[in-house]
Amino acid sequence: MALPVTPIQHIELPELAARGNRLYVKRDDLLPVAFGGNKVRIALELMEDMEASGCDALIMYGDLRSNLCRVLAFLCHQRGVPSLMVATSENADGGTSFNEDLVRRLGVPVLVCEKGGIAEAIDEAFARLRACGHRPYYIYGDRTGRGNEGTCANAYARAYEELCSQEWELGLGFDVIFVPYGTGCTQGGLVCGSLVRGDGRKIVGISISSRPRERAEKILDATVRDWFEKRGLALPSDYASHLDLCTSYTCGGYGARDARVDALIEEALLRCALPLDPTYTGKALRGALDYLRDNDVSNASVLFLHTGGTPLFYDYLASTRGSVYSN
């Protein structure tokens, strides 16, 4: 499936002006598939790899608010691919997410498990699909979630070329690119694209997860290594110096946020008509702005990758209804 080029939008926020920094946003939330977002590119890579592997059914995994599972559910439904979702029961906000509602409306069976029982739930998913005569494909590789890092990263190794072409066409030169870091495949893909071009780009992942820094760095490292290995390319000797991950602005972990995140979401919405969500993009952009301040960055051209999650933006609107206006 060919995807259109997503726009790059200039965003003006007062706190940037004091240091002369200019903020641009690449709007991957506007990808016109299954409510958009970075998971569209990643899901298409996974579907392509599933077919190349000779499999005919798909096992997806995420928490009940998963953007990736929502996109995969749509693609499987459209293509007639049997699918099953394994979901962890944790949900920091409580209640039902629009993503969960969409997955269930598309008829995807959901196996809910505890965080410590994921591998066993994956085994059950394989057994169910094999019992129906299918050859299932698990999006994260083996039952422990290893083996597919490079496949997912390829989505944004490709997208990096699109980004560079836009940069040239628009006459821009981005000094730093910020991206929300969740599973690491989006940042990892961008880093791979940059390493292949040899442009020395500064690509900073702003962690939104509860993973300890050491674990998050290992995942990012494995993602880059796996992408190069799958393509038979030599990994640059200095690749590790390009793995720039910031874990200082997580607000305590995945799904957690503070009042400053909400304030930025409101400001971006009312000032720029930019929809951000508190789990990924709102928290990551808040972290990116704090990173610029804390590292005394000035007069820089900054790009933020808007990774979407539009249904999560509507979760935010629903959860804050009545608290931001009086009538």
* Strand segment count: 10
Helix content: 40-55%
> Which class best fits the helix and strand makeup?
alpha/beta
Biggest beta sheet summary: 6 strands, mixed
- CATH architecture assignment of the largest domain: 3-Layer(aba) Sandwich
Shape descriptor reads: globular
Work out the helix count.
11
Q: SSE string, helix = H, strand = E?
A: EHEHEHEHEHEHEHEHEHHEH
- Low-confidence spans: none
Radius of gyration: 19 Å
What does this structure look like?
By secondary structure, the chain is α/β, with parallel strands linked by helices. The chain has two domains: 8-37 and 148-320, Rossmann fold (3-Layer(aba) Sandwich), CATH 3.40.50.1100; 38-138, Rossmann fold. It has helices at 14-17, 38-52, 67-79, 98-105, 118-131, 149-170, 185-197, 213-230, 259-272, 281-294, 310-320, and strands at residues 8-11, 22-27, 57-63, 83-88, 110-113, 136-138, 176-181, 202-207, 244-246, 301-306. The longest helix has 22 residues, at 149-170.
Write the layout of secondary structure elements.
Blueprint: E1 8-11, H1 14-17, E2 22-27, H2 38-52, E3 57-63, H3 67-79, E4 83-88, H4 98-105, E5 110-113, H5 118-131, E6 136-138, H6 149-170, E7 176-181, H7 185-197, E8 202-207, H8 213-230, E9 244-246, H9 259-272, H10 281-294, E10 301-306, H11 310-320
Parallel strand pairs: 2-10, 3-4, 3-6, 4-5, 7-8, 7-10, 8-9
Antiparallel strand pairs: 1-2
Helix pairs in contact: 2-3, 2-6, 3-4, 6-7, 6-8, 7-8, 9-10
